[in-house]
Amino acid sequence: MASFLGRYEYQLDPKGRVSLPADFRKEADGSRFVLLQWEPTHLTLLPMDVWEGVQARILELRRTQPAMLNRLRRITSRAVHVDPDKQGRILIPAGLKEAVGLEGTVVVTGNVDRIEFWDPETFATTVERATLDDEDLTDLDVQIFG
């Protein structure tokens, strides 16, 4: 399994493509990805091995929790397969860009087994500023780092 770490800023090109950081391309090793929006703030890029686990959970929920069907449809109807081109860029469809407000500069972050694409201001508001205001993170930090 790939391990994606770090924060980078890239520009969307006029065709809606964004580069993946060299470290991410190296970790992915030519992998195909699934790009989707499952949270309102950003897009998530999953390598196929991670997507296969998500897909199995979706199928199980579809069988066991009929009330979740429309939510699952919403998620899967906004998912697309993407393959990086020779320059390591992926195409972000217009509907997904618009859904999370991507234009110009894009924050590309590694989140261990996945990659996320954020509008810079949304990232600052949602992640950076919120973390600074949260005093209850000490317990979480100890759980993670010992």
Give a summary of the structure in a few sentences.
The protein has helices spanning 22-28, 48-64, 69-77, 94-100, 120-133, 137-145, and strands at 7-11, 17-19, 33-39, 42-47, 80-82, 89-91, 105-111, 114-118. The protein has 146 residues and is α+β, with helices and mostly antiparallel strands. The protein is 43% helix and 27% strand.
Characterization of the model:
With 146 residues, this protein is of the alpha+beta class. The chain has a single domain, classed as Transcriptional regulator MraZ domain (Chemotaxis protein chec), CATH 3.40.1550. Helix content is 43%, strand content 27%. The chain contains 6 helices and 8 strands; from the N terminus they run E-E-H-E-E-H-H-E-E-H-E-E-H-H. The chain has helices spanning 22-28, 48-64, 69-77, 94-100, 120-133, 137-145, and strands at 7-11, 17-19, 33-39, 42-47, 80-82, 89-91, 105-111, 114-118. The strands form 2 sheets. Strands 1-7-8-4-3-5 form a 6-stranded antiparallel sheet. Strand 7 and strand 8 (114-118) form a beta hairpin. The chain is globular. The two termini are 23 Å apart. The model has no long low-confidence stretch (mean pLDDT 90).
Fourth CATH level, the homologous superfamily? Transcriptional regulator MraZ domain
pLDDT average, as an integer? 90
CATH top-level class: Alpha Beta
Query: What is the CATH topology descriptor?
Result: Chemotaxis protein chec
Contiguous low-pLDDT stretches (5 residues minimum) are none
Number of strands: 8
Largest sheet: 6 strands, antiparallel
Number of domains: 1
Strand order of the largest sheet: 1-7-8-4-3-5
Which band does the percent of strand residues land in? 25-35%
* Annotated CATH architecture: 3-Layer(aba) Sandwich
The SS-based structural class is: alpha+beta
User: Treating each run of at least 4 consecutive H or I residues as one helix, how many helices?
Assistant: 6
Compute the CA-based radius of gyration: 16 Å
Kindly report how far apart the N and C termini lie.
23 Å
What is the string of SSEs from the N terminus onward?
Answer: EEHEEHHEEHEEHH
The gross shape turns out to be globular
Give the fraction of residues assigned to helices. 40-55%
